[in-house]
Fold this protein.
Amino acid sequence: MFRRYYGSQFAKRPGTESYKPHRFDVVCHQHGIEHRLTRPFHPWTNGQVERVNRTIKEATIRSFHYATLGELSAHLKDYLWAYNSARPLRALKGKTPIGFILERWQDDPERFHDDPVHYFPGPYT
């Protein structure tokens, strides 16, 4: 008799000696965060993320040709800054993502570890 092997005997499954949790899962566990995984490209569970990813792709790689990874990286950085600082979103009741974060900071700074103002580029950065 021949046994069939599909590679499952080599998988690092939870509860086995060779299994080590991913660093992200370790940090989540340390902070009491439940990390849930969903199926990729599944609009019923990932709808918002899939839509944002599509918007970013349409504005970058589907609209422009980049000769180098550096060009793509620079354009992506500029696009995300414009998206987060200039584009009001209906889900945030007409506020930009940065405006929404700064408003939350002013209302309840205890919810934040750091002052978010320092994470956004300004006129002197």
Summary: The mean pLDDT is 83. The chain has four helices and no strands. The chain has two domains: 1-37, 47-119. Residues 1-37 form one domain.
